């Protein structure tokens, strides 16, 4: 069946592309995706001839088949029938309604007759989807559920993150990672462990001494059950890969453990992020297991609330809010909170201790705030949950490539504001050089290249030295030659036809990334079909990184057969030249 679908889709592609162009003028509200699906299943289930439509085919496709294959029933409920009406009209107006079809008038009458049934079928699917979604909804993860705050997180103003060098320097000073290293080095190259307690009482006492932890009051319990702080550091050492299993009953320190803190910033941050989920070890541990579970996620709950408070808030306010949240999320929450208060004096004590030890929070005058490392960590945790959050490097820490990459995804006014703030911190000549060097890093990134050229071009004559240097970069030479010519620099090389062709290919690369309709529109902007054929006859010579991809896309997307042939010829020549 898959082969039949692929073959039918290939057969329909030129017809649907022509419909899209027709619909811009005659039926701009039609949904080409819905039309494509209807045309495909008409071809597969109702007629060998894509242009032959009988009134019975409408019921077969729209009522029998489409409810089984439609991906968005809500969109289909509103747009399916109007889009099919436009498609049938297009077939009739362009002479593509084949012999043996019902007259257009009869087809439209039948379409009107079944419209309510089609809408009802789609609305039934919507109800089913809603019920499935309700049935499949996961229960709240309790205190540590970030999804509860998704809307508030999305509404936060831009969060500015510090550069990796600063974060790595802070991570090198994280006390808990140092303790995990010391514990792993004490474990040594090969140490036998037990099945239940891992370490003997004598070993536990020795390990506590290595970590500077006091010997606990056991109150009649086994020593291993009275040292949760030791096991938290042990688990952190495993998270960091400082400790690794060496067999069924032995563990040992990794060979690189002694090198902590590492010299390379990237290695340091990778290690710190590997241990980030250790924040859960900060949750209170109580004698009653169910009470411990009732407060699970408390550390995450504290972090997310500090973030929502713009990175700093009062401990008293957090304490009140989290106590209420614990009572709300679990029937045992209030009782567990009381038990944690009795054990620690304040349920937030272990939370703050762990987060402080991991370099994520600082407390001063009963105010707790996220450190730059903590802000980085919370943003990383939120991102892991696929929750929207606007986080970017700080302006003063943003490289030219950071600026260009982030701005590519921003609305124009917001991107302009980022560029303006970044430019204020730099001499214009230096800024021009940095931007063009960033644009040259990846020859395949046309969008970054165009952005850089646009910003540098706005600097005027001060950017001339940077443009001169860019003449030596093949991907930037077309922009440099063009801008130098526009500035009237007499001794600068004039733009060549090859430069112009490179600029066209960059433009097409960007439009192709925006989707088929944008790409077709860009091709239309170039000129008529004959203009495109002439252009394709020379474009194949340009060593652009996306040349083959673009030529293949032109052949598939353009409705004119001559253009399609020219694109295929050009693609063949380009591949031959490369080989």
* Distance between the amino and carboxyl termini: 36 Å
Mean pLDDT: 89
Number of H/I helices:
28
The SS-based structural class is: mainly alpha
- Work out the radius of gyration: 32 Å
| Portion of residues within helices | 55-70%
Strand content: under 5%
Shape descriptor: globular
What does this structure look like?
By secondary structure, the chain is mainly alpha-helical. The chain contains 28 helices and eight strands. A three-stranded antiparallel β-sheet has the order 2-4-3. Helix 8 (175-187) crosses helix 10 (228-239), helix 20 (428-439) runs antiparallel to helix 21 and helix 24 (497-514) packs antiparallel against helix 25 (516-526). The radius of gyration is 32 Å and the shape is globular. Mean pLDDT is 89; it is low at 133-140.
């Amino acid at each position: 069946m898959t082969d039949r679908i692929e073959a039918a889709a290939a057969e329909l592609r030129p017809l649907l592309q022509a419909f899209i162009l027709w619909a811009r003028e005659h039926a701009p509200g039609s949904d080409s995706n819905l039309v494509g699906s209807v045309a495909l299943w008409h071809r597969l289930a109702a007629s060998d001839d894509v242009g032959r439509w009988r009134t019975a085919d409408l019921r077969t496709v729209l009522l029998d088949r489409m409810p089984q294959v439609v991906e968005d029933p809500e969109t289909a409920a509103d747009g399916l029938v109007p889009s099919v009406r436009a498609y049938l009209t297009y077939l009739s107006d362009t002479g593509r309604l084949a012999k043996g079809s019902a007259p257009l008038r009869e087809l439209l009458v039948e379409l009107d007759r079944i419209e309510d049934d089609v809408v009802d079928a789609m609305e039934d699917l919507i109800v089913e989807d809603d019920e499935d979604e309700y049935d499949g909804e996961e229960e709240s993860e309790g205190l540590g559920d970030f999804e509860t705050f998704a809307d508030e997180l999305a509404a936060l103003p831009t969060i500015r993150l510090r550069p990796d060098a600063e974060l790595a320097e802070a991570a090198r000073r994280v006390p808990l990672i140092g303790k995990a290293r010391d514990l792993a080095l004490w474990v040594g190259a090969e140490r036998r462990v037990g099945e239940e307690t891992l370490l003997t009482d004598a070993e536990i006492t020795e390990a506590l001494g290595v970590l500077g932890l006091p010997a606990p009051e056991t109150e009649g319990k086994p020593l291993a059950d009275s040292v949760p702080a030791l096991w938290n550091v042990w688990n952190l050492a495993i998270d960091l890969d400082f400790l690794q299993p060496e067999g069924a009953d032995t563990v040992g320190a990794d060979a690189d453990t002694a090198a902590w803190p590492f010299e390379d910033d990237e290695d340091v941050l990778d290690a710190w992020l590997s241990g980030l989920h250790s924040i859960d070890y900060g949750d209170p541990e109580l004698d009653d297991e169910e009470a411990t579970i009732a407060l699970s996620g408390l550390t995450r709950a504290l972090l997310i609330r500090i973030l929502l408070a713009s990175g700093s808030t009062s401990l008293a306010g957090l304490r009140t809010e989290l106590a209420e949240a614990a009572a709300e999320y679990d029937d045992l929450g209030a009782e567990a909170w009381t038990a944690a208060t009795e054990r620690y004096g304040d349920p937030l004590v272990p939370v703050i201790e762990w987060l402080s030890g991991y370099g994520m929070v600082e407390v001063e005058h009963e105010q707790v705030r996220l450190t730059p490392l903590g802000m980085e960590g919370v943003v990383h945790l939120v991102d892991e949950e696929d929750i929207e959050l606007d986080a970017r490097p700080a302006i003063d820490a943003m490289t030219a490539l950071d600026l260009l990459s982030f701005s590519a995804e921003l609305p124009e006014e917001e991107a302009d504001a980022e560029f303006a703030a970044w430019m204020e911190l730099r001499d214009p000549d230096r800024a021009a050089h940095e931007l063009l060097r960033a644009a040259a890093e990846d020859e395949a990134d046309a969008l970054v290249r165009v952005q850089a050229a646009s910003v540098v071009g706005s600097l005027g004559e001060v950017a001339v030295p940077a443009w001169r240097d860019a003449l030596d970069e093949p991907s930037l030479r077309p922009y440099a030659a063009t801008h130098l010519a526009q500035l009237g620099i007499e001794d600068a090389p004039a733009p060549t036809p090859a430069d112009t062709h490179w600029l066209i290919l960059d433009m097409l690369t960007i439009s192709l990334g925006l989707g088929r309709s944008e790409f077709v529109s860009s091709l239309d902007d170039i000129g008529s079909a004959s203009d495109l054929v002439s252009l394709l006859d020379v474009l194949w010579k340009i060593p652009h990184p996306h040349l083959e991809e673009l030529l293949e896309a032109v052949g598939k997307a353009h409705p004119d057969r001559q253009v399609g042939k020219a694109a295929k010829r050009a693609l063949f020549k380009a591949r031959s030249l490369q080989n």
